[in-house]
Design brief:
Distance between the termini: 17 Å
Disulfide bonds: 141-178, 142-159
Protein name: Tetraspanin
Number of helices: 7
Number of strands: 0
Subcellular location: Membrane
Transmembrane segments: 12-34, 54-75, 87-105, 192-215
Keywords: Disulfide bond, Membrane, Transmembrane, Transmembrane helix
Structural class: mainly alpha
Length: 227
């Protein structure tokens, strides 16, 4: 094997080793999110996002399996494994591109979707408002539009700026409403997720090209060795 192909081989191995680690991270994050999702389950259902943790776990598993084929194909110089990896990576690239397009297209509808979800959750939550309290604690917000939404009710601990307090006044509570806080949170993070996704696709395309080059070299090398 030439020096150039040897370099491609080991770069591809390192690339897939990192991908395998990323897959494990996705699985761990999805599992952690899944174990803590109970406070937000009702809200996530309203947004149609209740399956996000499971999606992380499935995506992490797919990335790990694809990376495994890539590592084995590179180290064992297996044409079959290298091509299996290349095809699987190509499918993953198409799926990532579709997801990125969906993220940017859905961004235009996010404000209306979040407003409806927050309003419905506020109106239909149970007496303890457990789902909304979880949202308040996570986003450091209070009420639907502000602490005055709790008028006539005791402000819960999740509204209080001081975590040591079990209840507080409107002056001691977060002044931002959860609808506004969530809009800001999504607005700031959707673009980041989209651009990170574009970066990941670029890296995946490089890995795909390396895999095709390695597979082609392995096939040609075996053909020459047969004569």
């Amino acid at each position: 094997m030439s020096c150039g192909m040897s370099l491609v081989k080991y770069l591809l191995f390192l690339f897939n080793l990192l991908c395998a680690l990323c897959g494990i991270v996705f699985i761990v994050l999805g599992s952690i999110f899944l174990s803590h999702v109970s406070s937000f389950k009702e809200f996530l259902n309203e947004l149609g996002a209740a399956q996000i943790p499971i999606g992380f776990i499935v995506l992490g598993g797919l990335i790990f399996i694809i990376a495994f084929f890539g590592c084995c194909g590179a180290i064992r110089e297996s044409y079959c494994m290298s091509m299996t990896y290349a095809v699987a990576l190509f499918v993953l690239i198409l799926a990532d591109i579709a997801l990125i397009v969906y993220i940017f297209v859905a961004r235009s509808n996010q404000q209306e979707l979040i407003t409806k979800a927050v309003n419905k959750l506020w109106q239909t939550a149970n007496q303890e408002q457990s789902a909304f309290k979880g949202l308040q604690a996570a986003l450091h917000c209070c009420g639907r539009t502000g602490p005055l939404d709790w008028a006539g009710l005791t402000l819960p601990a999740s509204c209080c700026k001081d975590p040591a307090l079990q209840t507080c006044t409107a002056f001691e509570a977060y002044s931002t409403g959860c609808e506004s806080a969530l809009q800001d949170f999504v607005r700031k993070n959707v673009d980041i997720i989209g651009y990170v996704g574009i970066g990941i696709v670029v890296v995946e395309i490089v890995g795909f090209i390396f895999a095709c080059c390695l597979a082609n070299h392995i096939r040609n090398h075996k053909r020459r060795a047969a004569y």
